[in-house]
Every structure is written in structure tokens, then in C-alpha cells.
Design a protein that fits this description.
Radius of gyration: 25 Å
Distance between the termini: 83 Å
Shape: elongated
Strand content: under 5%
Number of helices: 8
Helix content: over 70%
């Protein structure tokens, strides 16, 4: 093997190593991968909120069986559920995220008012069907909390990739993603501990 061939082989190896290093650290892979993570965690949040919404008709019907005259509270839950289930979310749209959070927050508040009403009805609290719904609702609230925490972390990582050098250069050149709206800080304290569903 001649000296020139050795130099060519060495140069090829160095170029290959540089390409591998550049491609793995510049964001060309990690930005799309992290975007996929954000979309996945958002889908999980929506899925868990849907699970909560699906429990509500049975919950309302069960409460109605013992407290049908609490019409205003029951209607409030039904209306809040209808609004929450009709609100779509787009992680790249700040207004969409805020609207989705407001709708889910309104539903949570309506459920809280329902919980207060339930306290006045010991027979309802002892109802087996109601107790099972309570357990399912508690489990769902815990899943929502976990899903939201994961989503917040994924958005933070994505925003870091597209705003921090050197991956931000790759974003500017190839992807041109905008920074994503983060979940509101007032919600951050609320999700530190899973909400308790007590009837």
C-alpha cells in the first residue's frame, strides 16, 4: 500500500467520523425524534382526558338517581363535559393549548362542585356502582397528572433543541420549527400532586 493510498484511506475515515459526529449531535435526528415524543405525549393527555369524559355520563346518572333535584350542578357537569370534548388541541398553537386547558379546567371545577353535592348524600356515597366510578375517576386523574408531567418535559426538551446552539442552527437551516407553547405555570403547582377525588 502506497503512502498516498494510506492518506486517502485515513482521510476517508476521518471524514466518516466527522459525518457521524455531525449528524448525531447537530439535531438533524434529535429534533424530529423529539417532535415525535411531543406528539405522542400530547396524544396520551388527550386519551386520558377522553377517558375521564367517558366516565362522566355514568357518574352523572348515578348521582341523579339519588339527587335528581341538584339539577344545576348536574347540568353544569354535562355542559362542561360537552365543551371539553369538543375542544381540540394543537401543541404548536398557543391559543389552542390555552383553550384546551380552560375547557378541561372548567370540567374539573364542575366535577369539584359535584363532589360537594355528593357529600350531602350518604346513601349515594355507599352505592357500589358509585364507588367503582370513584375508583376509576381517581385512577384517571392520576394518569392525567403523569401524562401532563411527561408532556411538559417533552415540550421543554423540544424547545431546548430548537432554541439552543448548535441544534438551533440545524432547526434554522432545515426545519424552521417554532417554539411550542408550554402548559401554564398555574397548572404546574396543581400537578405536583395528583388531585384527590373524594366523595
Amino acid at each position: 500500500m502506497g503512502q498516498s493510498q494510506i492518506f486517502r484511506t485515513g482521510g476517508f475515515c476521518l471524514a466518516s467520523l466527522f459525518c457521524v459526529f455531525f449528524l448525531s449531535g447537530c439535531g438533524i435526528q434529535s429534533i424530529p425524534q423529539q417532535l415525535n415524543e411531543v406528539e405522542s405525549s400530547q396524544a396520551e393527555i388527550v386519551n386520558q382526558y377522553k377517558r375521564r369524559a367517558d366516565l362522566i355520563p355514568n357518574l352523572v346518572n348515578t348521582v341523579k338517581g339519588y339527587a335528581s333535584h341538584e339539577k344545576e350542578t348536574l347540568e353544569g357537569v354535562v355542559n362542561a363535559r360537552a365543551k371539553a370534548t369538543s375542544t381540540q388541541i394543537n401543541a404548536a398553537d398557543v391559543a389552542s393549548v390555552q383553550k384546551f386547558q380552560e375547557a378541561q379546567g372548567s370540567l374539573g371545577a364542575a366535577l369539584s362542585r359535584l363532589m360537594v353535592v355528593v357529600e350531602k348524600y350518604p346513601d349515594l356515597k355507599a352505592d357500589q356502582n358509585f364507588r367503582e366510578l370513584q375508583a376509576q375517576l381517581e385512577g384517571t386523574e392520576n394518569r392525567i397528572t403523569i401524562a401532563r408531567q411527561r408532556h411538559i418535559e417533552n415540550i421543554k426538551r423540544f424547545n431546548n433543541l430548537i432554541t439552543v446552539v448548535p441544534t438551533s442552527w440545524t432547526n434554522s437551516l432545515f426545519f424552521k420549527h417554532e417554539k411550542m407553547a408550554q402548559w401554564t405555570t398555574e397548572d404546574a403547582k396543581a400537578i405536583e400532586a395528583a388531585p384527590k377525588v373524594q366523595f
